[in-house]
Design a protein that fits this description.
little secondary structure; paralog of FGE (formylglycine-generating enzyme); two-stranded antiparallel ribbon; 3 helices; about 15% helix
Length: about 200
């Protein structure tokens, strides 16, 4: 996990073990989140619902966490997310080590908005889609420094991590090791999530 060729908060690379888990193939869609709202009467004031097959956006960390719990799942840890994106060979992007703007809905796509989930052929080694671009994705973890790092941020322990970059991001932010943190109440139009569950649950 991590990289010595990226931002300071990505270093140092270090080994992490994750237990077997199952991850949603795509980001949670507007239709799926709307079903949650309808079934529960949940109030999510910031959520921006649009086309059914696009990823839901403008979700706070609590919104994402509560949806996952309702669905019998949970948010991925940061380590789980990175493993699902990079595979066992530690690739730079979900599809490999070379940047290819045709494989992700980032800034270079020129679309400047979300697209239907799974629209870009940027599968991870495990067949998980859209782990680069479309929307950034909340993880379960607080933003903290990696073991052995001397990097300091005033936001450590306060922000929650989101990964993967969104439709507004450049290639560097779409790398699988790239990390971003935001206040849990953040609700941007390029920020969504996906869920996981333990393999034995």
């Amino acid at each position: 996990m991590g990289s010595s060729n990226g931002d300071p908060d990505e270093a140092p690379p270090h080994p992490v073990t994750v237990a077997p888990f199952l991850m949603d193939v795509t980001e949670v869609t507007n239709a799926e989140f709307a079903a949650f709202l309808q079934a529960t009467g949940y109030q999510a004031r910031t959520v921006q619902l649009g086309e059914d097959d696009h990823p839901v956006s403008r979700v706070t960390w609590d919104n994402a966490n509560d949806y996952c719990a309702w669905a019998g799942k949970r948010l991925p840890t940061e380590a789980e997310w990175e493993f699902a994106a990079r595979g066992t060979d530690g690739r730079v992007y979900p599809w490999g080590n070379d940047w290819d703007p045709a494989r992700a809905n980032g800034r270079e796509s020129g679309i400047r908005s979300t697209v239907a989930v799974g629209s870009f052929p940027g599968d991870s080694p495990f067949g998980v889609l859209d782990m680069a671009g479309n929307v950034r994705e909340w993880t379960a973890d607080f933003y903290e420094k990696y073991p052995g790092s001397s990097h300091y941020s005033q936001f450590f322990g306060k922000f929650r991590v989101h990964r993967g970059g969104g439709w507004f991001d450049d290639a560097g932010d779409l790398r699988a090791a790239n990390r971003n943190g935001g206040p849990p109440e953040t609700a941007n139009d390029d920020l969504g999530f996906r869920c996981v569950r333990d393999a034995n649950s």
